[in-house]
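user: At home tonight, take the chain set out below, taking as long as you need, and be ready to discuss the fold:
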Amino acid sequence: MTVQTTDNEEQLVQLFRQGSPLAMERLYAGYASYLTGVCARYVTGDADLADVLQESFIKIYTQLERFSYRGPGSLRAWMARIVVNESLQLLRRQKREGTVVLNTDLPDLPDEDPDTEGLPPEAVMTLLRRLPEGYRTVLNLYVIEGRSHKEIGQLLGIRPDSSASQLHRAKNMLAHLINEYKKGKS
């Protein structure tokens, strides 16, 4: 995965502000893989993933003039937030259209914490993408994005206790999937 060094972030922002034709190319080359990974945590369909990334890059390119560089990593974090927001917009649209069920009623699994030690990152991503949409979304927002259950509830239009319940079930299901994966590799 290629990611621009933090010193290059500020230079990249300056190139955009100067109207350099290389700016878009350098931004895409430096961050496309990382942003694809961020998007893939939320969106599983290849066509949807491509659409979300395209919309995200359009927003990034058109709103970079308003971005305020705040130090190393701030550009990367700002772009990741755009990708997360675009991913959530897609999930909301799908929910309204009835294609995503956030309160999936799956059987309870025994309480387990996911043990990802020794797993390659690609395997973790594959297993994470096997979770139902609602579980995966809540898990990402809580664990990776650091959102509270109240914030998740507001973002997804669910109650905070539903968010907590889905997080609990997501962790259990992920632990179950990881254990199955490890047994298959033994």
Remarks:
- The helical segments are 6-17, 22-40, 46-63, 74-96, 121-129, 133-144, 149-156, 160-185.
- Confidence is low (pLDDT under 50) at residues 99-107.
